[in-house]
Amino acid sequence: MTRLLNKYEGNPVVSPADVPGGGAMQVFNPGAIKLNGEYLLLMDVADLSACYHFRLARSRDGYAFTVDDQPVDWPPSDPDFEEQNRYDPRITKIGDSWYIMFAARNDRLGVRTGLVSTRDFVHFERHPNCSELNNRNGVLFPEKIGGLYARLDRPMGNPHVDPANIWISYSPDLVFWGRTKPVLQVRPGEFWDAQKVGAGAVPIRTPQGWLEIYHGVEKTCNGFIYRLGVCLLDLEDPSKVIARGRNCVLWPEHGYEDVGRSGTTVFTCNALLEEDGETVKIYYGAADRCIGLAEGKLSDLLAACYT
Amino acid sequence: MTRLLNKYEGNPVVSPADVPGGGAMQVFNPGAIKLNGEYLLLMDVADLSACYHFRLARSRDGYAFTVDDQPVDWPPSDPDFEEQNRYDPRITKIGDSWYIMFAARNDRLGVRTGLVSTRDFVHFERHPNCSELNNRNGVLFPEKIGGLYARLDRPMGNPHVDPANIWISYSPDLVFWGRTKPVLQVRPGEFWDAQKVGAGAVPIRTPQGWLEIYHGVEKTCNGFIYRLGVCLLDLEDPSKVIARGRNCVLWPEHGYEDVGRSGTTVFTCNALLEEDGETVKIYYGAADRCIGLAEGKLSDLLAACYT
């Protein structure tokens, strides 16, 4: 049994101290893309009030990152829901636009799935929030399926008690959503994904199906452990799970993954497929405090769905 | 200060013993309409397994009801979500169809808002479920607003801890829903509606606005108390609350309202406006066990929104 994802020896690739100004407590759970040959991480950054903004880190080689001086120019709230916090962006390219799905939080009412788009990561455009209340980890598929946009998400009950599962919804226009149905459930038993499962990376299209790298949660007497695993969804009907790996593929094991705002946590909003069509880079949140890089092969991750 | 809603002296109007066969533990929270001169109550009926089906009670005068021998011929589940239980129907007439919004429950995954229509209360047609997970008390407005169908509902967190509020969503086609936003929140303080508020009756159109009779919950050390109150929503933009009564208009006070499956509870899914345009009949669930009737005047309920 070999390790499928290798962690970069220089991890973490971004830490709070890398944020100019010294006012960041945590940087984590970025969306990750390549734009004009540059790696861009759109990161959760917690200031000293523990409020989140999005900020970019940039790299030419994918390993050495520089954090922007300022947050991105985030657009005003959807007028239907005042957004006091935002986090966990997933970035999906459709046509010439990048769509950012994220958790939009009103501190009194709760959290929903927000949507913002950009063409250049300089100017950002607000769209109506997508989900109802108490639903996050929204991930937009990179193409229409059956003529409709599709998103995975994770509706919540009480986050500390109820299991949380991956669901799917469809939309003709990114405004009205429906045909909502469950996709992947927590695994019965004492597995690593027995307490919660949620969509992670933007699904990668392969001839075998949509590869989805998802997070699974184990609940212990001392709290939650977040790990990553893989499943394969049907290309035509992504509510159908073709295969689901028994084993997790990334887990906390080092200090920077074990201790932080939320310890024993690795979590991803991205899986970046390189131009070779085989190398996958995952810029993962480590303990809700910094960002690590793990690299592997698409073919290995696909095979892992069947183990 | 006079009482706005008078309870019928012959209450309850329907009890479990009225259900033919003797196998009903509870009958409550009906939708209520008039069809061809007949009052129809579409009721939650709990059998001895505590599973719910819908059954009709009929009356010529609105006071003496006879319960059908059999449940209604309820259509199979939405294939996207196996419905093992269903309850709390709200019945809205649009055109020639009656649309029934209700709580559709899968015992493993949770509860959503279901939708079934009928033209005759004999044949029923299934539509896709409307809401995401953990959302019930869906109430469809009786006309399109700004060219869109509209529903009130109550997304939930943990039902025993989190406050629950009234929200609204819109749809071009009853399949895809969006423009979701909050409408009415729990009242800060120790009021009768400080813990939860949820849509109750199908809104009644008046020149002053949509009259909505909603339920409010007070949380005590011994459990919840459910009461009914009134608010007025803007005709063009029903997410705007024009007025909200300070006082509840119906509350538990008698034995059949105080003791049952869920004691100290009055709850409604209906408010039936008679042909005189003034008399309102509310067939309310009492303690989740039987059905009471309360009568009042539309003008009084409207005025109560401003007290």
UniProtKB/TrEMBL annotation, chains A, B:
Origin species: Kiritimatiella glycovorans
One GO MF term attached to the UniProt entry: hydrolase activity
Name of the protein this chain belongs to: Putative glycoside hydrolase
SUPFAM superfamilies attached to this UniProt entry: Arabinanase/levansucrase/invertase
Source species, domain of life: Bacteria
Keywords of the record: Glycosyltransferase, Hydrolase, Transferase
Keyword Hydrolase carried by entry: yes
Protein family membership: Belongs to the glycosyl hydrolase 130 family.
Oxidoreductase recorded as keyword: no
